[in-house]
Amino acid sequence: MSPRIPLAVASNLVSVSGDNDPSESIAPAPATRTDGRWLGDWLLHGRGESSHHKATAPWWQVMCLTGVDYFSTLGYQPGIAVLAAGMLSPIATLIVVLVTLFVALPIYSQVAKHSPHGQGSILMLEELLPRWRGKVFVLVLLGFAFTDFIITMTMSAADATAHIAENPYVPGWVEHHPVLVTSLLLIGLGVVFLKGFREAIGLAVFIVALYLALNVVVVGVALHEVFTHGTLVDSWWSGLMTQHGSPWMAIGIALILFPKLALGLSGFETGVAVMPLVRGDANDAPARPEGRIRNTRKLLATAALIMSVALIASSFVTTVLIPAKEFELGGEAYGRGLSFLAHRFMGDAFGTLYDLATIMILWFAGASAMAGLLNLVPRYLPPYGMAPDWARANRPLVLVFTFISLVVTYIFNADVNAQGGAYATGVLVLMTSAAVAVTIAHWGDRMRWLYGTMTMVFGYTTLLNIIERPEGIKIASFFIGGIVLVSITSRAMRSTELRVGAVNLSPKAQEFLSSFAPNPIRIIAHRPDKRTVEEYDRKEGQAREDHSLQSGEAVVFLEIMQGDASAFEDDIDVRGVKIGSHRILRCTAPALPNAIAAILLKAQAVSGQTSHAYFGWTEGNPVTYVLKYIFLGEGDTAPVTREVLRRAVKNPEERPRIHVG
User: Fold this and answer.
1) Closest Cα partner for 409 from 191, 190, 180?
2) How many CB atoms lie within 10 A of CB 113?
3) Do 141 and 122 form a contact (C-beta atoms < 8 A)?
4) For residue 187, what pLDDT is reported?
5) Is residue 643 left, alpha or beta, with left meaning phi > 0 and alpha meaning psi from -120 to 50?
6) Which residues face 658 on adjacent strands?
7) What per-residue confidence (pLDDT) applies to 403?
8) What contacts 522, CB < 8 A, 6 or more positions away?
């Protein structure tokens, strides 16, 4: 009687070489449950969606999603600039703007070109390092990305809490419970993303439009105040010259201080990370969506220009109009320079409206970070086997990231300044890696000198930040260590999944397997040496003796060459060859036991007969074999193959048989 092959397994393994196009292969959506388990269906909705099948929006709307992070820095950057650079704040801010427009923007325009599906510089650099070296490098960069994005969420929410506490109409108890208020804001952010991206983008558009409009009013009134009282500018300039002696000395010191102000630059990293949400042209090719690339460049350029003008203007008016002591801890302008001016020149009613807009954009600043994480993690960790398969879905990840952000908030007591070093370190390391990737991509043309210079600018900025704020690299190391630990654990737990997308048979291999009908398929696992007729004669004779196979029973050899062991899942191309009278199936795969299991199931699907695989005993330390299997894809093959089959086929009667002798 023919064995019944499980539909879910057989449908994935029945393709024959030449019959299907890999570019058309899309993971099937999970079947809708009828047993009342609606929660699991809801959480896993969208799992396995490719980037070109996700919901998209016009570039200017996605700009608002990234802009809630980028533009929200106006809420605290002017104050940080004064604390870091004093009267030099406008000059140091001007240097940040020049770096933004003439270094960061060109770099990330190239990153968008080379990674249109949002992988960023991580993908560009991964391709330079093969196998496990590339995977480890990606994990390290993902650790810095986690640092950047998670701290963006927690620090922005903490700063929103500070703005709430400073408003004169807010009850005093808020000031004494910053962790509680910040946690509620983070939970609210998570709820928005549980609902979906469309809702997040719609809310971002409203918040950014309101916040930028109010900033135009506040900065406009402040500039009018500055130029109405011309002595204010003269006083600032004379004080600057008294402190530093000459404009050149002031510029030199500002060059040293400006890395402390490079906080808003994370908008470039999130701008690229959310590229799959940017709507391109109707005729965009999935592999190379030119419309999406062009629109993302519009997004990056528009956001950079808006932010550049806002930064220079806000830094100038806050430095000239607000006494330096007010920016210090306990001062009325501490962490809220523009809000101070709104209350001072336009009254508490308008100031409160400005505070509400600032609180909203700071709260929702984590949205771009959340969107970046939701794009990066499913692209790297689950395909590497370094996260559970449910990590391909957005909603479970939203819950995980929200929980992590709550833990970070508790650890740092919702203190903005305590998180600043980690935030800047994560941003600058990612931007430096992007500059390195773009420089390497253009190594063969003249542009390498320009991009190499930009790389040195970011390298200098990153190094200076690490020296000035070493706590940032320490905090980032915890995120890196956590990702590595979770990745190794997940890889070990998922190692006995089938891990084969499809088994593609050549015509000769198809002929070998079909010829067994109506008899069982008997496959001898073989590690080849010289591949001579004598070698196969000897191996077949030994297998028949060890497993009591009759001399007339047909057998076929299976030889699997070790491929890239760091790859978790791959398709297998099996070809058939004959040496003398011996029939041999050959292929290359990242993990030997998993490939054998998949080929056995494919053989059953092709012939309708039970597959039997024959192995010899393996001698050695079992712990060593377990580690070899996890990291090198080989080990004690027979028992692992059986375990892979046990997980893939629930009914024992339907499984291929494993024989060891």
Assistant:
1) 180
2) 16
3) yes
4) 93
5) alpha
6) 613
7) 94
8) 516, 549, 553, 554, 555, 556, 612, 614
HSE toward the beta carbon, residue 57, CA cutoff 13 A: 19
Tell me the C-alpha distance between 485 and 491, whole Å.
Answer: 10
Closest CA to 626 of 643, 614, 613: 643
Checking DSSP bridges between strand 570-579 and strand 582-589, what pairing results, if any? antiparallel
Is-contact 515 554, C-beta < 8 A? Answer: yes
Residue 342: predicted pLDDT: 92
Q: CA-CA distance, 175 to 155, in Å (whole number)? A: 16
At 457-490, the pLDDT tens digits run 888 888 888 887 888 888 888 888 888 888 888 8
**638, 549 contact by CB (below 8 A):** no
Q: Work out the number of other CB atoms within 10 angstroms of the CB of residue 620.
A: 10
pTM assigned to the model: 0.75
Q: Which long-range contacts (CB under 8 A, 24 or more apart) does 342-349 make?
A: 342/214, 342/218, 345/218, 345/221, 345/222, 345/225, 346/217, 346/218, 346/221, 348/168, 348/169
Count CB neighbours of 21 within 10 A.
7
**Residue 196, by phi and psi: left (phi above 0), alpha (psi -120 to 50) or beta?**
left
Q: 532-536, long-range: CB within 8 Å, 24+ apart, which pairs? A: 532/579, 533/579, 533/580, 533/582, 536/579, 536/580, 536/582, 536/584
Query: What is the pLDDT, as a whole number, of residue 45?
Result: 67
Count CB neighbours of 578 within 10 A.
10
What pLDDT sits at residue 261? Answer: 67
CA-nearest of 218, 240, 229, 215 to 91 is 240
> Which residue, chain included where needed, has tokens 């630059």?
265
Residue 486 pairs in a beta bridge with none
Q: Report the run of H or E that residue 584 belongs to, with start and end.
A: strand 582-589
Nearest CA to 328 among 84, 562, 532?
Answer: 84
pLDDT in the model for residue 491:
81
SS3 500: strand
The per-residue pLDDT for 8 is 42
Segments of the chain with pLDDT less than 50: 1-33, 35, 50-53
- CB proximity list for 272: less than 8 A, separation 6 or greater: 108, 111, 112, 115, 118, 120, 296, 300
Can you say whether the dihedral through the CA atoms of 123, 125, 131, 132 is positive or negative? negative
The kind and range of the H/E element at 614 are strand 611-615
Residue 19 has a pLDDT of 40
Phi and psi torsions of 265, nearest 5°? -65, -10
What is the Cα–Cα distance from 276 to 376, expressed in whole angstroms? 11
CA distance 167 to 165: 6
